[in-house]
Structure formats: structure tokens, C-alpha cells
Amino acid sequence: MNTKFIPAIVMLIGGLIDCIFAIINHLNLFDFTLELLIVLIVFLVIGECVRYVLEQNLSDFADENGEESNEESDEETDDEEYGEDDDIEEEADDLDTSEEDEEY
Fold this sequence. Notes:
Elements: H1 6-25, H2 29-82, H3 86-103
Helix pairs in contact: 1-2
């Protein structure tokens, strides 16, 4: 999963909420700009923390799933390489039983 946009999204949501409150409270321009700068920096840090935690957990999750899927694909590859397909085994069993019936 691509997590590089998470800090920006969190920061923009925080800035939007701050703008709404500034409009409701009729802040002057200097106070609004200073407050918006502080809010954006704080939410940037929060977004970076969220991104870091998600990357750590998603990489662990991907590693666990990756190992399982690699093992399954290795088994399928081994079966294909050595001709151990289920259909071939069933046909061989059918041939063995028909040969035994003919001998007796």
C-alpha cells in the first residue's frame, strides 16, 4: 500500500477544520495565519507518525502473506516440474486398475 500521501491528507483535514473555526470565530488575518501554521505543523507530525506505524504493520503483514504465497507457489512449481499433477496421477491409477483387470 502506498502510504506517502497520508501525512498530507491528515494535514489538509486539520487545516480545513482550523479554517472553519477561524471563519466561525471571525479571527483577524495575523491570528488566523499563525494558528493555521501551528495546526499544519502539528498535523504533519501526527500524519508522519500514522504513516510510520502503518508502514511497519503493513510490511509485517505483507511478509507473512508473502512467505505463505511463496511456499504455495513453490509447491505448485515443484509439482509441474516433476509431473506430479493430480490429473496425471488419476490417469495412472485408472491404467493400473485396467491392467490388473485384464491379467485376471
